[in-house]
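Field notebook, page 415. I keep forgetting to write these up properly, so this time I am using the form the group agreed on. The chain and the ligand, coenzyme A, are recorded exactly as supplied. Prediction of the bound pose follows.
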Amino acid sequence: MGKALDGVRVLDFTHVQSGPTCTQLLAWFGADVIKVERAGSGDITREQLRDIPDADSLYFTMLNHNKRSVTIDTKNPEGKRVLEALIGKCDVLVENFAPGALDRMGFTWERIQELNPRMILASVKGFGPGPYEDCKVYENVAQCVGGAASTTGFDDGPPVVTGAQIGDSGTGLHLALGIVTALYQRQTTGRGQKVLAAMQDGVLNLCRVKLRDQQRLERTGVMKEYPQHPNGAFGEAVPRAGNASGGGQPGWILKCKGWESDQNAYIYFITQAPVWPKICGLIGKEEWVTDPDYATPAARLPRLKEIFAEIERWTTTKTKFEAMAILNQYDIPCGPILSIKEIAEEPSLRKTGTIVEVDHPVRGKYLTVGNPIKLSDSPTEVTRSPLLGEHTDEVMAELGYASEQIAQLRAVGAI
Ligand code: COA
């Protein structure tokens, strides 16, 4: 079966996590992704957090599947010429260098357009244009400047960053959407364009509901579904909401059987209004169905702590999986806190290709997260990440270089 992005060639200048996430997705959708790396060292993540000496790290292998790797010294004049040939042949150039690095290499947007007017230049940067545009940014910086950290954690504690890589992988996802959209527009305009996904913007996009709440707070001075209500005080900025759902359906994380020794023996419990009578029945509080203090969502808001404490008395008598099985029978929305170990071992995720086992010639078998986006006519087959420079000769030959020329370029350190 063909792939959605068959025929699309991507010149992949990305490194670390944000850019590689994007180009990996494009590769999974069928694009030919040619990753350009520096000879000898390559993407810095090849050697970061290594668990096996001399083998590419899991950090690298899990972000660079289905790509080809070529080594080019982009600061070497001969290397630049190879790069120019590649720019002429590719549809998309993706990069997440520090601001200005591509210009310093001599590949300004103007130069790229001269070489290939159909080229789409896609960049991840920490910030968009403005006072911080020259700053380097990593994941947790993006979480802090994008609104996630100030709204995550508990009210009486410091800001907290989340384990979900919303700054890096999240921005890579945003960039991938920008690229396929630009490819689509190119069909009618015949021209490439620049695509920018700033990490601050990407994180803020994912924190959209918090900007909603900021404005609600400014208008009304109170947010009744936040845990600060009714006993705590609200300040000027939207506060950290602990495990409150943040939506119209109050929720909280509750202990389950075994919580004393298992830090993941918890369940997220949502007191969705239509199933309130069923919840009351389950926890033995039938009187709450008609009691005016508990009967309506509005009446329940100032009593959420008490309500969740009562529900927790029930959940602590069940394991998180027992609780889930029972709650699902009643259509009560809930989510057991799954450890990464439990997720890795979950058979249904293996079946759908969301968790995939991959074989690598140096490190052997390892697990990775496959393509989370499933296309019925463009299935994803995850193949291992390339070794450093594994495809240099192959790509050079495709560009028309003879083997003696390739040897010569290698001798002068251009590739
Ligand atoms: N040949 C020769 N030189 C190369 C090269 C190659 N194949 N590939 C990269 N380089 C050079 C660059 O030209 C740059 O040189 P310069 O600084 O002299 O212009 C140098 O390597 C370093 O690149 P840079 O991107 O600045 O790496 P860094 O380690 O200094 O910074 C980041 C890393 C991630 C902080 C930075 O790239 C960044 O802010 N990126 C944008 C935001 C982002 O994606 N952050 C999240 C990363 S997960």
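OBSERVATIONS:
- The mean pLDDT is 97.
- The pocket of coenzyme A is lined by residues 16-19, 36-38, 72-75, 96-98, 101, 104-105, 124-126, 136-138, 168 (CB under 6 Å).
FOLLOW-UP: compare against the apo run.
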